[in-house]
Amino acid sequence: MSNDTIDVAAIRRDFPILAQTQDDKRLVFLDSAASSQHPQQVLDAMNDVYLNSYANVHRGVYQLAERATSAYENARKSVARFIGAPSANEVIFTKNATEAINLVAQAWGRANLGPGDAVVLTLMEHHANIVPWQMMAAEIGFEIRWIEVTDDGQLDLSNLDQLLDGAKVLAFTAMSNVLGTVNPVERLTAAAKAAGAITVVDACQSVPHFPTNVVEMGADFVAFSGHKMLGPSGIGVLWGRMEMLDAMPPFLGGGGMIVNVTRDGFSADAVPGKFEAGTPPIVEAVGLGAAVEYLENIGMEAVRKHEVELTAYTMRTLTERLGDDLILLGPSEPAARGGVFSLAFADVHAHDVSQVLDEHAVCIRPGHHCAKPLMKRFDMNATARASVYIYNDTDDIDALADALVAARDFFAL
Ligand SMILES: Cc1ncc(COP(=O)(O)O)c(C=O)c1O
After folding, report:
1. pLDDT tens-digit profile of 288-300?
2. What residues have CB less than 8 Å from 257, skipping those under 6 apart?
3. pTM of the full predicted structure?
């Protein structure tokens, strides 16, 4: 573990993609909330499996297959350590966070939810934590209740107890991918527990950026994606309390998740195998394991500190440079948010803003960010979202501000 300051220049040298230029301009990558970039260490770890240790896992008895299986299972151990999971067997590898949440909604939901039950969501959820519940609600007939969002982009918890009364599930994001709001996870899980509801935490935007301990979070399930935390796409994680995972039926059926199959039926493997049907994302898991080790070497306390400082700098700089011309959604206090900045100019579409920024080699993401109910709450169709990570520094924010000033001038606001 390092001390609590990070050396951005040294980190950037680990990311070959960031060395490129676009139209002779330094590439400024500010879209890590959508998907982050990869250090050489992750690329090397994945390449090494392909070059030296690739075979299917949990099947072959030859040495190559055993090496591949060890690499895959070591990645599970690394992820478990990173999130403070009591057992590596509680870490289920999925395709992404979306699949992890669908797994819970479908497997746990079908076994435990019935007509007349209630599931509580928040209005700041990504569609990945809305649609799976809506699909099950359509099938089963339970009610979905919503925690509202305040003007300052915080959860309105004034009627939490009422919403949780009689509810079976509280599913919420640890950090909003649109507003940057960091939610009070422990308070929410404690309230749900007191009301007899299980909790599903969408930790897509928190695990890459904060020290994480799933036990301290007090959740029953935690979902996140590898590709937002320096790992490859194609792998996500569902962590669940063993007691819950043990009691749940499988999600997908096929090879790898059974102990026995006869003409009459099958018996499911123990957790985690029960939830990993088919050939898993072997090399992707190894890449995620390497990403976790890379982040551990930096230290997650240092990552968070860097992002709080950069968030404060971003908010200050954008306010100074653009003043009232720019709308910035989310909490006004930097410590209450992560490094995600949803920006808008009144009367200019986010896609147009992003296109001007692209001419300055500044990569941000326009759109609804898969959070349409939240966008409707703020009466918007789209924002231009900039998001930071360990390889971003104040120069990147200055470049963002310069490009936004150019966009404002271009559209003659
Ligand atoms: C908060 C949040 N939840 C869920 C997801 C879905 O992640 P994935 O597309 O990797 O399944 C995202 C991705 O943008 C996200 O930001």
Report:
1. 999 999 999 999 9
2. 250, 268, 269, 273, 274, 275, 276, 277
3. 0.97
Backbone angles phi, psi at 374, to 5 degrees: -70, -40
Q: Which two tokens stand for residue 175?
A: 């950090």
Name all residues whose Cβ lies below 6 A of ligand 1: 34, 96-98, 126, 128, 173, 177, 202, 204-205, 225, 236, 370
Cis peptide before 272 (omega within 30 of 0): yes
Nearest-atom number in ligand 1 for the CA of 176 is 1
User: Domains along the chain?
Assistant: 8-30+299-410 (3.90.1150.10), 43-297 (3.40.640.10)
**Mutation to probe ligand 1, out of 31, 32, 95, 98 (largest number of atoms < 8 A from CB):** 98
Ligand 1 centre to CA of 260 (Å) is 35
Token output for 69: 């299986």
CA distances for 141 relative to 100, 114, 116, 206, angstroms: 22, 7, 7, 31
Residue of 170, 370, 386, 388 with catalytic role: 370
Contact predicate 303/391, CB 8 Å? no
Mutating to test ligand 1, I would choose from 94, 172, 173, 205 the residue with most ligand atoms within 8 A of its C-beta, which is: 205
Each residue of 317-360: pLDDT tens digit? 999 999 999 999 999 898 899 999 999 998 899 999 999 999 99
CA angle 212/218/224 to nearest 5° reads: 45
Count other Cβ atoms within 10 Å, centred on residue 305: 14
